[in-house]
Design brief:
binds flavin-adenine dinucleotide; binds (2E)-2-methylbut-2-enedioic acid; six-stranded antiparallel sheet; globular; eight-stranded mixed sheet; alpha+beta; 18 helices
């Protein structure tokens, strides 16, 4: 047999997977088909528990939601390991093929799309949300709380977008966790840091709304079951304000899971494998719904009073990235495979104005060996960065644009992140990198240098000088403003890092109510809202670490509430 369906076909008829013996699926989530897999093979938890402990298990992952078996195990085509979108584990997958994803423009197949539109709406709702990342899920929760009927459409088989990958934290000022830790912060300082980091081209009103609502957003998440009690420092922040779960665990998977659970609990109709390819309007320009391409059910129209675009950015689409910033051509990306810019395309078709698309951020510490971004929190908690000569060359917690540029100037266009066991113990996220086998370990600094094949005496000198700066409270070399700890607790660790495309700052123009502005009139398009990485203006020319999760939670909530109100008042 070539594919899984051949094998199952030999065992019985189509109804071993499908509802009828003639095949055909019930919905794009493949609810029945996935339940059939589980009924014979067990669920993810059971499969993960049975896997050898010393190996990365394909069934144990950091992804969120209920991961459907068919996300990887395909019936009628070669199976693919979704993990390979970022990593390269080389799992021996039955009936497996190579991970490949070609970008298909949203307007491909126009004749079939026009035919589906002409056939009219298949169903009706109050609010449609495009995207199941943090912005979309936050919008779903707040729209449901405001009484709207919501359909949330996600093109990927796995929910959570980039949000589920977020690691370092969520920025917020004047919060309860900060107060508990004795951290004095002000919303105005968050505004000033964000404007400065964004080179002052941010929309000041959007920034004010971000900072002024950030503490409420922490309370909102906490009230739904989130743990945001650990607070650390991110690049460009003058105060510790990046919130994450206890012990420094990754923030994104946690926040996305809490929002997912709450959206599900509130009865949101969530459809995976469902790509929105067009936003529909009437002759007066009012939004009337969306055209969806169901991976298995084909094109159909959902009529809706309001649409929220929460479709994320486009950092994983290198052709598009390079179009706006040719310097980034061929760069790897930290993003999930769905970050291709579809949201922007459907928004443009609907007449939305855009801004700042040329501003694209590279994250300075991506591990090429692991296919994974190494969180800024490692530096925030005290790690240093050295080059192949064993020397520091920058303030490690400067903004990302500056850090990435400095790394690219070093020999080999990469560098090493160096930390000690006390930093490892301060941040649970590091265990994930150790698990991926990408972290070198040395009993002493000299031993570590040998493993990295860099001059041992030079690295020892660098660490000694740095420890002296920590003791004196002043980095005489690069003016690093925050010096949390000396690097003295063995064992010592290092991993190679290089910049990778991380965040697209530009996008759809919105106002503080998350209304999308029209390119033609400059006024809001009736019924169209947007939130999160698909928008521009909040982060200006350069986003500060920790500000995106803050953005998506705050503007996701606002967009959901605004869309529900519009639908109700209509
Ligand atoms: P996403 O979470 O990307 O969700 C958008 C969803 O829309 C996706 O699931 C996508 O598949 C779907 N979609 C797109 N087009 C369509 C369509 N046409 N139809 C249906 N669905 C569609 N920020 C921080 O503040 N702190 C951090 O610690 C942090 N760490 C990060 C670590 C990594 C590795 C990455 C990649 C990013 C990190 N960020 C962090 C940035 C932050 O995670 C993102 O900017 C943010 O989560 C984006 O949220 P979103 O909801 O706007 O988009
Ligand atoms: O905001 C981010 O992108 C972030 C904090 C990433 C990280 O390094 O953890």
């Amino acid at each position: 047999p070539e594919v899984l369906a051949d094998f199952h076909g030999e065992m019985g008829s189509c109804d071993s997977c499908h509802v009828s013996d003639k095949g055909g699926v019930t919905n794009d989530n493949l609810t029945h088909e996935n339940a059939q897999c589980v009924s014979c093979h067990g669920d993810l938890k059971e499969l993960a528990a049975a896997a050898p402990k010393d190996k990365v298990s394909p069934h144990k992952s950091h992804l969120i939601g209920e991961i459907a078996c068919t996300s990887c195990h395909k019936g009628h085509e070669k199976s693919v390991t979704y993990c390979d979108a970022c990593h390269s584990f080389g799992f021996d997958m039955p009936y497996g093929g190579k991970w490949e994803r070609k970008f298909v423009p949203v307007d491909a197949d126009k004749a079939a799309q026009d035919k589906a539109i002409a056939a009219g709406a298949k169903e009706t709702t109050d609010v449609v949300i495009i995207g199941s990342g943090g912005a979309g899920l936050a919008a779903a929760v707040s729209a449901r709380d405001a009484g709207a009927k919501v359909i949330l459409l996600e093109k990927e088989p796995i929910p959570g977008g980039n949000t589920k990958l977020a690691a370092g934290g969520m920025n917020a000022a004047e919060t309860k966790p900060q107060a508990k830790l004795g951290i004095a912060d002000k919303k105005q300082i968050m505004i000033d840091d964000t404007m400065k980091g964004g080179r002052n081209i941010n929309d000041p009103e959007l920034v004010k709304t971000l900072a002024n609502n950030s503490s409420d957003s922490i309370d909102w998440l906490t009230s739904m079951g989130a743990d945001m009690t650990d607070v650390g420092r991110m690049g460009g922040a003058s105060v510790n304000r990046s919130h994450r779960p206890t012990g420094g665990a990754g923030v994104g998977a946690h926040v996305a899971q809490v929002l997912w659970d709450n959206a599900v609990k509130r009865g949101t109709d969530i459809r995976l494998n469902s790509r929105v390819v067009r936003i529909l309007e009437d002759a007066s320009g009012k939004i009337t719904g969306v055209l969806v391409k169901g991976e298995y059910t084909g094109y159909y129209v959902v009529k809706a009073d309001a649409v929220v675009i929460a479709a994320g950015g486009f950092a994983k689409n290198n052709d598009r990235v390079a179009k706006y910033d040719p310097k980034l051509k061929g760069f790897k990306a930290t993003n999930h495979p769905g970050a291709t810019g579809d949201g922007l395309d459907v928004a443009l078709q609907a007449g939305a104005a855009t801004r700042d698309l040329e501003f694209i951020q590279a994250h300075p510490t991506y591990s090429p060996a692991g296919g994974v971004m190494i969180t800024e929190a490692v530096r925030g908690n005290g790690a240093i960065v050295v080059n192949r000569e064993g020397n520091r060359f920058m303030n490690e917690i400067t903004t990302r644009d500056k850090a990435s540029a400095a790394i690219l100037q070093q020999k080999g266009e990469s560098a090493y992140l160096v930390f000690d066991d006390s930093i490892r113990k301060s941040l649970k996220a590091i265990e994930g990198y150790v698990h991926l086998n990408i972290v070198k370990e040395g009993k002493t600094i000299e031993d570590l240098a040998k493993q990295l094949d860099i001059p041992a005496a030079e690295l020892a000198k660098t660490v000694k000088a740095y420890n002296g700066f920590v003791k004196s409270g002043k980095d005489a070399q690069f003016e690093r403003p925050d010096l949390p700890r000396e690097l003295v607790v063995a064992p010592f660790y290092a991993l190679e890092i290089a910049p990778a495309v991380h965040h697209t700052m530009g996008g759809v123009v919105i106002d503080t109510k998350a209304e999308v502005k029209s390119e033609k009139t400059g006024k809001p398009i009736d019924g169209l809202y947007a939130a999160g990485e698909v928008t521009g203006g909040v982060h200006g020319a350069n986003r500060l670490g920790g500000n995106a999760i803050s953005d998506i939670v705050t503007y996701g909530r606002i967009a959901g509430a605004s869309a529900a109100k519009y639908a109700k008042d209509k």
